[in-house]
Amino acid sequence: MTAKARILVVDDEQRVRTFCREVLELQDYFVMEAENGAKALEILKTTSFSLILSDIMMPDVSGLDLASKVRDEYPDTFVILITGHASIDLAKDAIQRGAFDFVTKPFKMVELNQTVERAIEVRKKQISVLPSPELKDLYELTVNINISEQSPEIYMDNLVSCLKKTFRGDSAGIYLTEKPGGLTLLRKTVSGNEELLSEEVWESASQAALQSEAGYLAGEDSESLPPESTGVFSLIAVPIPSPEGNLGICMVTRSQYPASFTTRDLKLMGLFSAQAGNQLTTYRMASNLKEQADYLEKVNILAAEFSSSLDTSQVLSSISQGLKTMVSFDLFGIFLSGKDMIPLSYLLVRSDIPDDVLETNFRSILERTQDSKDVQLFLDSGIRDSFANARTADWQSSPTVDILDLGEFGSFRGMIVLASWLKEKISSRAPSYIPILIRHAAAAVSNAYLFETSERNYIQAISALASAVDAKDPYTHNHSRNVAAYVSFIAVQMKLPSRDISLLNNAALLHDIGKIGIPEAILNKEGSLTQDEYSIIKTHPEVGYNILRSVTAFASFIGTVRHHHERFDGKGYPAGLSGEDIPFHARMLAVADCFDAMTSDRIYRKSLGTDFAKEEIRKGSGTQFDPMISDAILSVLKTTTPEDIIAEYISMGSNQVIFS
After folding, report:
1. Taking a C-beta distance cutoff of 8 angstroms, is the pair 566, 573 a contact?
2. CATH architecture of 135-286
3. CATH of 473-651, one of 1.10.443.10, 1.10.3210.10, 3.60.15.10, 1.20.1250.20
4. What is the pLDDT of residues 63-115, one digit of tens each?
5. Coil, strand, or helix at residue 261?
6. In what order do the strands lie in the sheet with 185-192?
7. Hey, which residues does 625 pair with through a beta bridge?
8. In this structure, which topology does domain 312-439 adopt according to CATH?
């Protein structure tokens, strides 16, 4: 049968010990013996007991002294004292020493059993509720205060007030380390008279507590005593544990009342600090998870923004602005280069950076991992933006530079660079996510760069085809260029914005691209075209539209190419649009196209001359042509000859498709 409880019998008389043991074992208790108080204390170090039955009169450690030590060090163990001379004074002294009751020699079996049974029952009830008033306070603190529903500051205010009340201190404080396991403490929360502690005492006590699992005790019952000059009579300090190392310490001090702290107080306060460690660790973990989730959400949002466009300038702006919200830097740069590709160089730097800073330590750092020619191109060419920053920077020092080599992103080479000359340390979790964000940025800018490069190559191919179309007929050679010159001058006359002029130029250079699919026999026919042949000729705007529409860069002017043969009166082709239903730029292109056709030699006729062409435009105003545009070209031709218009256009270098 399992013993009900462990009982230690302590007496220097063997016959008393034997009698007690035999009586108690009949009640199924587990009983051990000790011949004196010193031996009992040794046994208590390795074995716990529900009850100690001890004689009062023993050499070295008396029963009363043993009761005092058990009360202080093993508060859950009850003590019953055995005496040969019962008195009121003895009973009072026994209770003050922590004894539960006493029996008087000679005692009977029934009396002993009843006293032991009563002690065991009281102990059982007391432990089942709460073993001590201090643990009741701890229980209430644990149940009623949830750090996740409050701030850490409110939690520590409540905890330090509880410590001061529970341990009857004159002051109580919680001091946290800068990081788990650190030795530097910051005073966080204090209740009571903190002035009791001098800096010297506080420092020595806190460091002793941090370096001890059990904590630090100073007072009458310990080997350490606080200096008398401080006013501190006794002190306990216990580390606040966590899996990553101590988070700080809890400290309580007393002046003179009610007594010196004991090892029992130290152990009990260890329970409070352990609970505080659990709460603070839980809060830190929850805060870290939330912070990480917030940063990851921000990274995902920014990554999506980076990839939302294939326009390089827009991607660069999105990346630079996005990174500025995540991390402090003084310079952000991107460099991309590849075979048959125009290098891309972009720098976003602080507006107050001295001109020579990038040519010293910064250049040297880049050249450790990057080709010196690429570094030269990166620093000397491309786009450079600036931004303001109020932080202090040490421009003479070597910067902190993070470089992501982009060679892995395709057939080109390149890098993304972040640099900082800041004096103060930036404390943030964001930098741990910067490599992820930079890789998203690298992918986005690489995609945009490759896309635009591909489109540029395609545009150049289309431009070459357009020139090939003109070259198919020696009589219409340079027709597209001439139309671009005329329509550009009309646009200037009408005071259109530069973007419109650029779009009209591109549309004019490519407006006859559809003729690439027209048989040369029809294009170069000397005589009149048959109805069928003319029908084939009329398909070239639609063919040109289908060729160009797969290129997103052409989206803004393919309607102009498609409808440049529409008439203002609705009798044109391919859609028979009229008036303002015809795209405005197409109406402009129609006038310029007809003017060059009339003033150029064709295989089936000679040039009709400028005067004839101007008169035809005047007659066709309102029927074939938009009157406003007719007036504009006629106004241009009053002061400028066609030859001058074309010569000036060529001198400006505009006779190519502009990628923008």
Report:
1. yes
2. 2-Layer Sandwich (3.30)
3. 1.10.3210.10
4. 889 998 888 888 778 999 888 776 666 766 777 778 888 888 888 899 999 99
5. coil
6. 185-192, 171-177, 248-254, 234-240, 216-218
7. 621
8. Beta-Lactamase (3.30.450)
- Superfamily of chain region 6-129: Response regulator (3.40.50.2300)
Q: Residue 615 pLDDT more than 90?
A: yes
Q: pTM score, two decimals?
A: 0.43
- Cis ω on the peptide bond leading into residue 258 (within 30° of 0)? yes
Beta-carbon-side half-sphere exposure of residue 194 (alpha carbons within 13 Å): 12
DSSP for 182-226 reads -S-EEEEEEEE-GGGS-HHHHHHHHHHHHT-SS-EEESTTSS---
Question: How far are the Cα atoms of 226, 266, 284 from residue 248, in angstroms, in the given order?
Answer: 21, 16, 14
Q: Domain coordinates of the chain in residue numbers?
A: 6-129, 135-286, 312-439, 473-651
Tell me, what amino acid is at 485?
A
Q: Determine the Cα–Cα distance for residues 360 and 375; give it in Å rounded to an integer.
A: 12
- Please indicate whether the domains covering 135-286 and 312-439 agree at the CATH topology level: yes
Query: Cα(85)–Cα(384) distance, rounded to whole angstroms?
Result: 100
> Which residues lie below 8 Å from residue 620, measured CB to CB, with a gap of 6+?
594, 630
Model pLDDT for residues 292-317, shown as the tens digit of each residue: 777 777 777 777 877 777 777 777 77
351, two tokens: 């507006």
pLDDT band for 136, please (50, 70, 90 cuts): low
Q: Strand 171-177 to strand 185-192: parallel, antiparallel, or no bridges (unpaired)?
A: antiparallel
